[in-house]
Amino acid sequence: MNKIIFILFLWTFFSCGPEKSTNVFQGDLEEFVVDSLSFERKKGVGFMGFHKTTIRNGKELLYTKQNETFQFFDVRSGRRIDFLTIPTEGPKGIKGRAEVGGFLEDDMLLITNSTGNTNIYFRDTLMTTFRREMDSFANGRYIYLGDARNSFHSLPSGNFELTFNPFEFMAIREGRDGLDLSFTSWIGEFDRNGKVICESDFLAPYDKSFGESTQGGKLVRMVEEGESWAMFPYSDSLYQIKNCEVIQRLKLNSLSSIYYFPEKYEGNKNSGRWVKPEDGASNLYLIKDVSTGLFIRFIHLREKRNETDKVDLHQKMVSKEVTYLMLIYDEDWKLLAELEQVYYPGTKFENLFSTSEGLFINKPEQKSEDEYEFYKIDLSQFRN
Q1: Nearest to 222 by CA among 205, 209, 210, 240
Q2: Which of 59, 149, 207, 213 gives 20 to 30 Å between its CA and that of 182?
Q3: Where are the domains of the chain?
Q4: CA pseudo-torsion sign 166, 169, 171, 177
Q5: What are the Cα distances from residue 94, in Å, to 25, 132, 155, 333, 363?
Q6: pTM for this entry
Q7: What class is the 86-264 domain?
């Protein structure tokens, strides 16, 4: 009897390891490719940055924004359905560039820029124009909006959030750091007349070594089902935002070793470049997979460079081997899986998005100039 108890004890001891090492799946992203989808692309068009979906005339469409032109695509066929170009002059035009844009809850298209000029359109009709309140954000200096695909988010209330980036590229010429580590107004909520409803008041989780970082201020955002989330590129901390306040802060788990190192400036005040360590990681995307309800965190994990005799910036970008990591979490942000995807020299990661049809990531190899090909990823096996 004692021998049986001892055997049961050993079995229990060795089978009950740490939860994240026994329950988290690790593998390659391409193991979960179930289909592909091609989007129509005009010849001569290079980069296509997909934003998210919108409903137009009862139909789900995915849209891109390139300068002042929005293109709308069928999420099932990939065919281009419509396009809209925002004028930069004339009675319907926006003053300055159409820097950031997206759709409000009632299909109104909002266009704004870092100077505060804002237009709201319904289809091609200009409904209203105004200048956003922004003095409290700028604090006497020019302040940029965040990434064009990740700066604007509509809220169920009819208001909208904008994300700001305080990095100043010209600071190096004045002998100071470009990223203001005392900055707190990362997120602002505005009504449809441009009035500030609230602004955030939290610091980036960085030490002084990140003061030169050009990427550290590019806050990664997600607003889904009325819940607003944010991550800094160089941190595992996830912030839940409500009324511009941090109501919850989580540390997202990972099995893989993730190292955050800031870029360093090499050169003098008149000429130089920022260099990121090859093993330096950064958060790129937060997405909710529509078909499964799972949360996706997408990371630039590491890279291998081959810059011999490479002068052209585009060549440098595609001459690298870059490893990305997709981390999959449940609705409570418990880690379920880690999936790696490598883009080898000559290929480049550009897009990750979710529609009612599934989760999509651009294929490393693109065979045609007039078709933009994507893998369809099925994560349903990780759903409880």
Answers
A1: 240
A2: 149
A3: 86-264
A4: positive
A5: 49, 13, 23, 40, 35
A6: 0.89
A7: mainly beta
